């Protein structure tokens, strides 16, 4: 039973990366090196004040506008996709594109979240 659960989780994670992302007109995807350079050492600030911190060493944290924080590790995949494996073992993959001079994060279910600001951190 445990083996089937693990296989199911691996299939779900793989399908998140390999899915057909529904882009919009003007979406400009990044290649792996370009997205890594765009995210590494940066904090993406969203309009709801949520913050995605992409440490250069691969550590990640997302802080909700109201203060709760999730921790994990990030990596970039093909097709402008970034995947985060949280400390809970759950993996989440999103697509980050540029559109109209602004970064936009697209979720696997098609929701889009524009980035309000990008902050470098040390």
Give a short overview.
The protein is an alpha+beta fold and 122 residues long. The chain contains two helices and nine strands; from the N terminus they run H-E-H-E-E-E-E-E-E-E-E. A hairpin with a 5-residue loop joins strand 4 (59-63) and strand 5.
In words, what does this structure look like?
This protein is α+β, with helices and mostly antiparallel strands. The chain has one domain (2-19, 28-120): Lipocalin (Beta Barrel), CATH 2.40.128. It has 2 helices and 9 strands; from the N terminus they run αβαββββββββ. The chain has helices at 2-18, 32-39; strands spanning 28-29, 42-46, 51-54, 59-63, 69-77, 81-86, 91-99, 102-106, 112-120. Strands 2-3-4-5-6-7-8-9 form an 8-stranded antiparallel beta barrel. It is globular and about 35 Å long. Mean pLDDT is 86; it is low at 1-17.
């Amino acid at each position: 039973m445990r083996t089937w659960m693990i296989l199911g989780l691996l299939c779900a994670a793989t399908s998140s990366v390999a899915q057909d992302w529904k882009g919009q007109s003007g979406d400009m995807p990044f290649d792996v090196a370009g997205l890594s350079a765009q995210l590494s050492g940066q904090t993406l600030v969203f309009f709801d004040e949520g913050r995605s911190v992409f440490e250069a060493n691969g550590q990640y944290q997302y802080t909700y506008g109201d203060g709760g924080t999730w921790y994990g590790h990030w990596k970039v995949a093909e097709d402008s996709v970034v995947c985060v494996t949280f400390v809970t073992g759950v993996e989440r993959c999103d697509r980050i594109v540029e559109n109209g001079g602004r970064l936009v994060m697209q979720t696997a279910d098609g929701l889009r979240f524009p980035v309000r600001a990008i902050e470098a951190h040390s």
